[in-house]
Amino acid sequence: MTLLSSGRRSRVLPHRRVWRPWLLLAPALATLAVLLIYPLGRVVYLSTQDYGLRELNLGLSNPVGLDNYRAIFEDPLLRTALVNTVVFAVACVFLTVVLGTLVALLLVRLGTKLRAVVTTAIMVAWAMPAVTGTYVWVFIFDTPSGIVMRGLDKIGMVDPDTTNWFVDRLSFYSIATLNVVHHGFPFVAVTVLAGLMTLPGETMESARIDGANAWQRFWNITFPMLRPVFAVVTILSTIWDFKVFTQVFLMPGGDGANRDVLNLGTWSYITGISQKEYGLGSAIAVLLTLLLLLITIVYLRSMFKEDELR
């Protein structure tokens, strides 16, 4: 009897081992399917349709194949939106990671109480809603009543009657970059700080005794040991900064009035929602998604290759 029970258990257990992980993952997979996979599949489906208000109201479908994608690639606005998206995201990611790392290196040198106070202060910037932060930066650089404009006017550097920083593409995205970096650097600072506090003090002390300066200690010891931390903050910042929408859309001219400052996100929204061309707007959104996936895959592959070479 005991042998029979043991034999049955040996036949059942491998079967359970196969299904148990999938049963445990089932709630998360079901949530992802409802909240991510279905909407994404719906956007891809709409991108192959000539879908407007008429089709939406009557429940019709009008498949056009890849015509929407062909129209996007023939539109000269694609180059402007693509350059704005990529250059803006690269600048924001670089400045956010550098500033956040510098702040983390400062925080790790502070005492416990002072570090808690400064960390709480910078986290306010991260907790601030993007809408509020954007209006604050617009108020600072507003023409002619903005604080910066009035200050530069008093020392004779600008003329408020002829200067509008929200019209020119470079100055527009410079202000947007300040907004995004100000909002994003606290996350990088706190994450890198958590990594810095796990580093062995003996290693840094030995390097200091050997005569290594601050830059050499950071580049040869801190950065290699915290490479996974920097990989995470860089990937997350890249994903967030490539799909920035609120900070651009709410600035003067960012809602489509100034076509020179459109990025892929605002172009997709204005085309799909404001102009009711849902199929064309979905195709732009798919293009942005593919761009994000490509960048993430290339970066992850480069990170894994470096680890394999070690």
From TrEMBL:
Domain ABC transmembrane type-1: 82-299
Superkingdom, natural source: Bacteria
GO cellular component terms, semicolon-separated: plasma membrane
Localisation: Cell membrane
InterPro entries: MetI-like, MetI-like_sf, UgpAE/MalFG_permease
Family from the record: Belongs to the binding-protein-dependent transport system permease family.
One of the GO biological process terms: transmembrane transport
Name listed for the protein in its UniProt record: Sugar ABC transporter permease
Principal subcellular localization: membrane
Protein topology in the membrane: Multi-pass membrane protein
Keywords: Cell membrane, Membrane, Transmembrane, Transmembrane helix, Transport
Transmembrane segments: 21-41, 86-108, 120-140, 172-197, 218-240, 278-300
Organism for this UniProt entry: Solicola gregarius
